[in-house]
Amino acid sequence: MTFQKGDFILINYTGKVKETNEVFDTTYEEVSKDERLHKEGDVYEPKLVVIGEGWVLKALDDALLDIEIEKASTVEIPADKAFGQRDPEKIKRVPLRQLLAREINPIIGARIEYQGKMATVRSIGAGRVLLDFNPPLSGRTLIYEVTTQKKLESNEEKILALIHRRVPVVEEEKFKVTIQNSDLTIDMPEDTFYVEGIQIAKRGIAMDIQKYLPDLTQTQFIETFKAEPKPVITNTPTLTTAPALITTEETETTTEPELTEETPETTPTTEETETTT
């Protein structure tokens, strides 16, 4: 089975530098830990790719057209089709004091920002620092070990995958999508209410849907906030015993009626709706 441009697929991969066999990227959590690439909070799982949209390197994107589902494949990408050849003019020496004055403590191999550009620290000595402004993988031949896990067919699958791409920290099965004619409604789970940047993510989801599923002309997000249930309080009669040799007075105790199943409390629900057209 081959694919076409515009197909939604899920892929697993591990990217290596051919010259050194160094792993620089992976979707497998165990591999990331073994290679000391693991980052707390990152989500390791099959990656969504819409073929032809440039979500991966173009050479890999082109190769995905011919990769069969669930069949492990190896894709080799030369430097000129990956991150280009290294440019010697992008390697500069700068005074160490300039970096320290900007509260930058350079460490060999670290990535730092200098004059608005990212650079790799290559060496430090004699009061000067060698900065390489080339992309870290420039000049390298890359090897991708890639497996296409699945092709997404239904609109519901595609929508959930687009949502998960923007909000990866929340499981996609917690979202509920409803399609009625050309209208899409997305019920947002409570887990998303306090996710950092959720409003930007929602805007991105709506734009993705307009681009990749143009038949859906309106996207509506629904957020439902439920009040905490109030505790049921009952008054219990208390028996008071007078001290010995003192006359006991009768005490009248009033008990408020208990709430029963016949008199349920209602839980107020507040619904917030956002519509993107």
Could you tell me how far the N terminus lies from the C terminus, measured between alpha carbons in angstroms? Answer: 36 Å
Structural class: alpha+beta
- The total strand number stands at 13
> Approximately what portion of the residues adopt beta-strand conformation?
25-35%
CATH architecture of the largest domain: Roll
The number of distinct helices, counting runs of at least 4 residues, comes to 5
CATH class category of the largest domain:
Alpha Beta
Mean pLDDT: 87
Helix content: 10-25%
Describe this structure in words.
The chain is α+β, with helices and mostly antiparallel strands and 277 residues long. The chain folds into 3 domains: 1-86 and 137-152, Roll (Chitinase A, domain 3); 88-132, Thrombin, subunit H; 154-230 and 269-277, 2-Layer Sandwich (Alpha-Beta Plaits), CATH 3.30.70.2210. Helices cover 17% and strands 31% of the residues. It has helices spanning 29-34, 58-64, 96-101, 155-166, 198-212; strands at 8-17, 23-26, 47-50, 73-77, 91-95, 111-114, 117-125, 128-132, 142-152, 176-180, 183-188, 218-226, 269-276. The strands form 3 sheets. Strands 1, 2, 3, 4 and 9 form a 5-stranded antiparallel sheet that branches. It has a 4-stranded antiparallel sheet with strand order 5-8-7-6. A 4-stranded mixed sheet has the order 10-11-12-13, with helices on one face. A hairpin with a 2-residue loop joins strand 7 and strand 8 (128-132). The longest helix is centred in the C-terminal third of the chain and has 15 residues, at 198-212. It is globular, with a radius of gyration of 30 Å. The two termini are 36 Å apart. 14% of the residues are buried. The model is unreliable at 244-271 (pLDDT under 50).
